[in-house]
Amino acid sequence: MVPDFVAGTPYGTAFILFVAVSAFCWVMSLLTGEFSWVDRLWSLIPPAYCLIVAADLDFRSARVNIMTALVLMWGVRLTANFAVKGGYQPGGEDYRWAYMRSNLSKQQFQLLNVTFICPGQMIIIWLFTSPIHQAWLFSGRAIGWLDYLAIVAFLVFLAGESVADAQMLRFQKNKQRLRDAGLEVEKPYIDSGLFRFSRHPNYFCEMGMWVAFYLFAISSSNQVVHWTGLGFLLLIALFQGSIRLTEEISSGKYPGYSDYQATVPRVVPIPLRKLVGR
Length: 278
Fold this sequence. Notes:
The protein is mostly helical. The chain is 71% helix and 0% strand. The model is unreliable at 274-278 (pLDDT under 50).
């Protein structure tokens, strides 16, 4: 069951956990009729994978310990944000799954569930955390400048995502407050704060964090291209589809959203687009 390239390693143990958790999510989706079980575990599984690897080294590798600490910070913040939004409560399913169910037959959606929603997303999580396996293989190598760059980049993106999520949460709470009071919501979508520069700054920062995480694999092995880089590439591809679906829903709900789309970049913030001449 464990792929040969990680067999007998702590990341092979993480692969077994991936299989078990994927099965759990699928069974729970059938029992509850909710399809956000992977969403609920998204921020919990990467720290578990990293801790498995770090523990195998008795927490003696500085690079692996740093990587684990960063992922733990990411996991705590994302878990707290998801909890505040009610994601762990019964009925806290992501609205996009309901939208997809309405556009697919029951059989089509269950096929999507057993292939992509549960194991597909979980394998992406296993892959984008896999640079820690590369760091484990070369755990005897000293930390270098690229590791420090990765640390700074990861923390900057983590801070950016934290700010974006806080701004979105504050906006949604204020919108709900106005609705509860029977008042008109003039603009039902956020276009302030970091959302002035990117329509999805949180996605941009999330992708940036896992690209930065891959830098640890490069630093530890001196290999620029390695299979552990497949994770952040698949994550970026996954987010592109998620963003397209989100914007399809938003465009149908909010008449003025097309104007926002026309003036603000989808992902890469305006300052960075100007920097690269686009």
